[in-house]
Amino acid sequence: MGDVTITRVEEVLEKGFRREMLFPGIDLAIYDEHPVLRDFYDAESGQVWSSIHSWLVQANGLNILVDTCSGNGKARALPRFQRFHMLNLPFMENLGRTGLKAEDIDIVFCTHLHIDHVGWNTRREGDRWVPAFPNARYVFGRREFAHWTEGEGPRIFPENVAVIEDSVLPVVEAGLVDFVDDGDEIAPGLRVEAAPGHTPTQLILKHDRPGSAFVISADCIHQPVQVYAPHLNSCFCEDQESARTTRRALLDHCADTGALLLPMHFGPPHAGRVKRTGSGFAFESGAAAPA
Ligand SMILES: [Zn+2]
Q1: Is 197 exposed, middle or buried (0-12, 13-18, 19+ CB in 10 A)?
Q2: How far is the CA of 118 from the centre of ligand 1 (A)?
Q3: Does a structural domain hold residue 206?
Q4: Residue 77 above 90 pLDDT?
Q5: CA of 69 to the centre of ligand 1 (A)
Q6: Rounded distance from Cα 14 to ligand 1 centre (Å)
């Protein structure tokens, strides 16, 4: 898009949670009302197609990796986390298919510090977790980091504490972390914005240049069904009301500017555009250039 190249680097694409577990209170009839949604779940099992990936943004000569999936070899033997336990997935090999090595990544930006967004920050070396991208600056939200180290995060989501210990603190202790706040740029033209709800301190990443506008939307939105039902929160959203407000603002932004929506968990084709309809929004899946 313009002078920016964006590549999806996949960790895994699999059947995820059942729709009624991921979205408490959902009326499944909505999937029949909007045919585009049929591609995003498995009809037999009722599970959503769930991707876990990084977005590699290449701009201004920089290689920027946004969110780092779940990681390999991490002990996650907790009921809700079984799908993340002791993984052995070819994420680094998939990054290699872009022509880059771990050493080539200049910036790692984590939108928030949940289990499936920080895992490849570190890799196992002997009995230690070491930074997996040794030449990168790791960029975290200042308030998001505080949420997990001195705030309410561990009480709200105790399963995520081990994640902070093995995938966040080692890069902090290595001196590789820069903290950012709402409105800061992590690179020229790439601005973070507060997106409270899924975590109270989550950030999204916006690029506003006409013709190449996009937004990497963190976990403001997990599945395309939420374009049609913006009030629908996932069971992992920590602050219910602000999650809804933030999701509506994101959809307004995409519809008003034509920005490409780049979420973290949509099934194929993983990205799309948002159009305004009489009663709300519609989703056009695919990464077609703006009209
Ligand atoms: Zn996530």
Answers
A1: buried
A2: 10
A3: yes
A4: no
A5: 8
A6: 14
What share of the chain has pLDDT > 90, as a percent?
Answer: 92
Q: Is the pTM of this model over 0.90?
A: yes
| Nearest-angstrom CA–CA distance, 222 and 232 | 10
* Cα 241 to middle of ligand 1, angstroms: 18
Mean pLDDT value across residues 47-69: 98
Return the CATH number at 177.
3.60.15.10
pLDDT of 79: 83
Residue 80 tokens, joined? 């809700």
Q: How far is the CA of 278 from the centre of ligand 1 (A)?
A: 30
Nearest to 180 by CA among 198, 205, 162: 205
Domain count, the chain: 1
Containing structural domain, residue 183: 5-285
Distance 29 CA to ligand 1 centre (A): 25
What does the pLDDT read at residue 287?
Answer: 67
